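**User:** My hope is that you can spare some time for a protein that puzzles me. As I understand it, each token names a local backbone shape. I would be glad if you read both lines and explained how they fit together. The protein I mean follows directly.
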Amino acid sequence: MKNERSEQVKLAAYGQWDMILQNLCGLSDKETIPTKSGMPCPNCGGHDRYEFKSADDGYHMCRGCGAGDGFCMVMKLLSCSFPDAVKRVEQLLGLTPETSYMETEVLRRNHQSALQAKAVAQEERVRSQYEQAKQAAHRLMQGAAPANPDHPYLVSKQLPPFDLLQDQGNLLIPLFDENHNLVNIERIAPDGRKRGLKGGLRRGVYHRFGEPSWTVLIAEGWASAASIYLSEDCACRVYAAMGKSNLEAVCQVAARQNPESRFVVVADNDTHLPDNPGVHQALAAAYGIGAGLIIPVMESQTGGVDASDIYTSRRDIT
């Protein structure tokens, strides 16, 4: 009978584990969005190790404390047994021991319909935000001037401005989607702070250097990609993923855009951070497209190391 009841509660909970975990365990929206990856785990902490996979059954993965369904997360976060987790979910959903399977199915379908309507509305909002940011990006680029070679960020990285533009004190890094349409901009302030446009598309967008080539390299940030491009005498194609969490998506885009090329991912070696997320994300991205992997190392460097650090150190020597 107990197994039958747990299956009934599981049926009622199907498709609404994002709501359940938010209300029962205090998880945030970001911690229960299936598209978010590489987050701190709400149970064991740690950096860049947790991913919520599905609101259908609450399935999640963590490199620290393991994977499981929604009941497993409730048990971990509330330190309770499985029967207790079932009871808490049952109470949250307004079920009673007298609730029949037929009534449970009706409840589940009603909840599912409401969730689907909510998801459609959210998709519309996101698309609207993407479009607004895209339009803002075009306006910014049209009204901007060529970047000043003496911009503090360029000077600190010992890089030329290439074809970048500048809006007042901010460098403008144009970001493109897979069809190479301008969809977003990363603004770099003189002190190095970086900001995208509010609501702009981030996943799968890139900045790209060079023409098609046999070797294609993918790096995390604009400065690293620019440094690699110059180090290779501008004779290759280099992608900047504009963030470690975007490396996998950009690698897939690069592979589709350059089907005859070989690929190399150049990691940020985040030795100063727990679990070295730069190397972890780069390794996963490289594995996804069968690419090589380069991990920068500098004996004299006490913090993290990226391709930009290697480039500036060699220029300092010369």
About this structure: Residues 101-143 form the longest helix (43 residues). Residues 48 and 277 are 6 Å apart (CA to CA).
